[in-house]
Amino acid sequence: MEPWQLTATAAAALLRAGTLTAEALARSCLERIAAREPVTKAWTFLDPQLALASAREVDKRYTQGVLHGLPIGVKDMIDTADMPTTHNSPIYQGLRQGRDAACVGVARGEGAVILGKTDTVEFAAAGRRALTRNPHDPARTPGGSSSGSAAAVADGMVPLAFGTQTGGSLVRPASFCGVYGMKPTHGVVNSEGAKRYAHTLDTIGWYGRCPGDLRLVAQAFRLFGLDAPQGTTLAKPLGQLRVALCRGPNWQLAAPESQAALLLAGQRLAAAGVAVEELELPTGFDEVTEAQRVILMAEGRGAFLAEYLNAHGLLHQDFRDRVENASGITAPQLLAAHDLAAACRPRFDALFAGYDAVLSPAAAGEAPLGRQDTGNPVFNSMWTLLHVPCIGMPCTTGPNGLPVGVQIIGPRLGDAALLDVAALVAPVIDPALAG
Length: 435
Fold this sequence. Notes:
Helix content: 25-40%
CATH superfamily: Amidase signature (AS) domain
Number of helices: 15
Strand content: 5-15%
Distance between the termini: 15 Å
Structural class: alpha/beta
Shape: globular
CATH class: Alpha Beta
Order of helices and strands: HHEHEHEHEHEEHEHEHHHHEHEEHH
Number of strands: 11
CATH architecture: Alpha-Beta Complex
Mean pLDDT: 97
């Protein structure tokens, strides 16, 4: 097995043992990128010499952080001190902010090697699409907006990558590309240095190839509950877990393969001894998807106002429409959306008195053809507005042989317990992980 084929968890063990160096791992990843990038096009900036120099510096460290020696890709709307941050916008080509975003600073502080910048939908929002292709079928999208990050991890180019989610920009690409992705509780990871779209929704997350990979990054960010040696949920036998299977209010928008994936995941868990129960969300939750759209569009007005005023001719029409409030959002609508979200959040949290996790679709179906359609976020946007942690994981394939995933969801600040659940259920839901 070449080093680029290792999960972050496996590579971390070898790095700690001294049988693998950060430079050797980075060099292997760069060789994989050289072989696959002409097809996948996951990167907007890559300087192999800079990456190798960074890896050598990590190899010289006296102490080892939780991400010691692990290469990580950074979505190109998150600032890096030594690389451009273009936001995939003609306005910011070549821009160097000169400092790291908070999440990048944490990764560096924990010993990660920042390998390069991954392509994104413009401003992680709308407008221009990434050039990135789905590694499983270059004729199809990897999803958006974290296009390059999901594809790079799926294609073996890097074991970890940062993404973001404002609607479904992290979990949906995980499903399309067949990787693991974590959107933590809103606000637990500092978003300073990442382009803002909607401050009520924007969340920094990450991709890996197994639940253990997601946990490593979560440990770096000191998520609540991860300071214990072992979570209480992980101490449970699989047969004591209770999982709520939630089709959700948008079930009719799921393609047959997405509906089949959710039911298959539930069947696999039940066969393994997990108590799986159907969950119908209480009244009011059927309006949360629309509330998320209202907040997204309303907060987007201010997010792109500076570019609208100072670089109007270079700003995509999608963003001009947001600034001009083309969707006609009113103040009463925005207040109602915020009030609904505030009311639904504790109601959803209360469900976990009886469940360890909620199981739900991760995407509307397989990855669509082409680059323009990056997929419908309808199976993610509700959870994003509710501020709850979500973990996307592979499950099966659709009619065209493309990955179709599912996601498990926990209550706010229940990230540690959700990671414990993921460690238990992923080998059941994702047979490829088990062997």
